[in-house]
Amino acid sequence: MSGSFRAFDQNTDGPPIAGLIGSSEAMRKVYDLTRVVARSNASVLLLGETGTGKELIAKAIHLTSQRASGPFVRVNCGALSESLLESELFGHVRGSFTGAIANRTGRFEAAHTGTIFLDEINSTTPKLQVKLLRVLQEREFERVGDTQTVRVDTRVVAASNRDLMTEVEAERFREDLYYRLNVVPIHLPPLRDRPEDIGELVSHFLAIYNEDNDRYVVHIEPKALECLQQYHWPGNVRELQNYVERAVVMAQGDELTCDLLPENVLRGPKARTASRPRAADLETLTYELVQQGLISAGPQEDNLHAKVVNRVERELIAQVMTSCESVQTKAATKLGINRNTLHKKLKEYGLDGEQ
After folding, report:
1. Contacts from 346-351 at CB under 8 Å and sequence distance 24+?
2. Any idea what the CATH number is for the domain that residue 304 is in?
3. Which of 273, 305, 333 is the last residue of a domain?
4. 33, 85, 121, 340: which has the highest count of C-beta atoms within 10 A?
5. Could you tell me if 216 and 210 are in contact, meaning their C-beta atoms sit under 8 angstroms apart?
6. Whole domain around residue 326: which residue ranges?
7. Tens of pLDDT along 2-58?
8. Percent of the chain having pLDDT more than 90?
9. pLDDT tens, residue by residue, 293-306
10. What is the spatial distance between Cα 216 and Cα 123, in angstroms, rounded to a whole number?
11. What tens digit of pLDDT does each residue of 264-294 get?
């Protein structure tokens, strides 16, 4: 979701800042919690699927807090390798590693007196999780290659598109860091759970892309709106934004009509069943994987659910890589993740040698 940020709105019935769109009950609850938590210095954990607007809520927390005059610094933890992310977060001194030709200030220092937003926090490695835990607890750290301790006054807002408790149970995320981050969790609802907001969102994006493209698409065909409200939106608001932009570019008149929507949207409610596997589906899949010897399920077996999910994810990535002829950029786009995240998953699942 995009949109410029202007002075924050003190109206307690609407969004806490300009640029947040949606008046559904689910979003009003998010707005209320955002206002409450903004008045504190507590760490906040934003949870929700990719494209639900976690960065917008992080900015809202910052802009409606007493730190609004300080910097807001965003770091995508899933976009960098461990060594690069460590240097990005904490800085480094000259000569600490190959290519470190000068001292560099990290993002935590840059966010001093303000807010740092750690997106895709679930992508961090155990080593970095230890350093992050220390910053949260002690408000101090050392730059890479240095022994001098740096103290900072920085509020941490983190986000994850995965269930972090599941990651903890699978021993991919530290339990102590999870509880330190999860002081105030805010769950952002997927777009399919708030279809009443779609009309307002479409109008918002029409205004943006009409201006960008010097067009005048100001009406929405009722049937087109119905199709949009029935679609399951795996890419959430970001996907809707993309379709509206395309419709504005392709429109011949002043109305967004059904023929301007992609085929997957026009198929309607049938696609909704693919949005989330049911418990019975997982049980069947678990049985089939055990019978095929692809996972074990003995009496002492732990984390069976996580193993099933990982196996399904591995097969999905393998199939998409094959269909994209091993072009990682193309495959990442099709999967809805960034290229660096895909690269790490290929290594994690032993698929990097199959390219």
Report:
1. 346/317, 346/321, 349/310, 349/313, 349/314, 349/317, 349/318, 351/314, 351/317, 351/318, 351/321
2. 1.10.10.60
3. 273
4. 121
5. yes
6. 279-354
7. 433 333 444 556 677 767 899 999 999 999 999 999 999 999 999 999 999 999 999
8. 55
9. 555 555 544 555 56
10. 42
11. 999 866 544 444 444 445 555 555 555 555 5
